[in-house]
Amino acid sequence: MKFMRLGSRPDTFYTTEAVRAVSSEVSSDLIVQVQGSRYLLHKFPLLSKCLLLQRLCSETPETKHHQIVQLPDFPGGVEAFELCAKFCYGITITLSAHNIVSARCAAEYLQMTDEAEKGNLIYKIEVFFNSCILNGWRDSIVTLQSTKSLPSWSEELGITSRCIEAIASKVLANPSRVNLSNSCSRRGRDDISWCNGSESQRHDKHVAKGWWAEDIAELGIDLYWRTMIAIKSVGKPPSNLIGEALRIYASRWLPNISKASNNANRKESDSDSAGKINSKHRLLLETITSLLPPEKGAVSCSFLLKLLKAANILNASNPSKMELARRVGIQLEEAKVSDLLIPSLSSDMVYDVDMVLNILEQFMLQGQSPPTSPVRVKGGFERRRRSRSEEKVDSEFQESRRSSSASHSSKIKVAKLVDGFLQEIAHDRNLPMSKFIAVAQAAHPDLNKSERKNLCRILDCKKLSMEACTHAAQNERLPLRVVVQVLFFEQARATTSGGRVTDIPSNIRALLTSNGDPRRPMTASFSTNATGPAEDQWSISGQKSPTSRISTLRMKLAEDDDLDESFADRIGSSSRAKASCLLPGRPKGMFSKLWPISRSASQRH
Length: 605
Hints:
SKP1/BTB/POZ_sf, NPH3_dom, 30 helices, NPH3 domain-containing protein, disordered C terminus, alpha+beta
């Protein structure tokens, strides 16, 4: 680090009886009081360089021995005042990035300008600051850090803004060059407890490229925000470097945020301190969120989800949470199941399922239908003379096709991700069935009929709860085969328990009763001891009419195979009439699919 020495005389300041004085043959005639400390000094060397002391001495009545001057709220304290006083005596002083801010503010306070004496302290400090401090990378950062002790003075004198501009210009000069200064924090590389192993490897890979990230991570959040804004506004550095810098800063100032917050919340006596810590961390997290680059892939999805978890724990603002959820949704295919397990603090559920639903909603907004192919010009001559605009259209079309293919691949990955997430949250006893189903439907919104059948084959209808059965009876997206299976097993369960269906919800009980009379249960008894596949375990035994049994099986096949109206017309009217005794007098809308027969066909019979 660079420094500047001024003066040539040796240091003759000493302390006696809590008073600082200067060893001199001439007796002192001025007492200066600075923040409780007293200095016995001489008027001549100080007043010749300090316009403020000249004015104060002229306004203060003289006494026989000493004239007393009060300097309240002196910037930089007694250390800064003593440095200025030594300069006035010609005693050697050393200026560096560590004390230049306090020295400059103290000189400004004392009005040590060229008006008092040419080449005064303010002039010398400004020359050193502009020519040396601002030209050095580490010097600029240290100086900027020291401005936090005197923020208003530093802002007024332009020290803060000039340091930020100098740092930004050095970063933008070559943001990817390998020039790790001695100030690069090894702590930042070894203490990345907030990140998993893959992120640590990613960090090691890019540490040489983001040579400036660890240095500016030492700044407080206010100065860091201003520095990053300057870097992004003055130039356009690669978004991945900005993202890496934000990740390093978060790992530096938000280590193990979840554990720290949980421990603090357990201690009621430390509630005030915990609140202050959470408020500080909340501001830091929201600031990092506001600095995230808009480009996809600038930061990892895992890092975004860690920020989202911290946002939940710290009770960050809803806009910050929604912004993080939106960014996670853009690159959700990169996530892992463990990343989606966001703790829930506002309900009895273990995980925040609502937040995952928001993320899935944002992800689905990214999907677009495959583009149509542009019209091609036929004829060899026309093809040879294609305009540049046509070539551009074709190029954009090919790019859009690749994007569409990537989108389809992303949906497959996200669907598998959500399936794993559902397996995790299924263990939560406080999770409402509606939320579980909402997550499943959000991951598979475009399943066709065949895919829904294959998915439902894994269901064991005999093990469904009453709530699940109720939902199955009302869910229009479920294949009718599954709905009927659910009703069959509910009827079998009711028959086994005594032949009554009074304990079943009303909507299911209505479907299981004949002619809408809940007191008269269905006469059919269903076999639940079949050993075949789940899709074949709905054989009907005990039916009095074999024709009715054939009719029911035909209805089953009509639903499974999507038989057309001509096939349905071939089903005998007598069979349909006998089969209708299995359904209520007012069948539900879903069962209308069992008889896709027009009025004209009915009239023919």
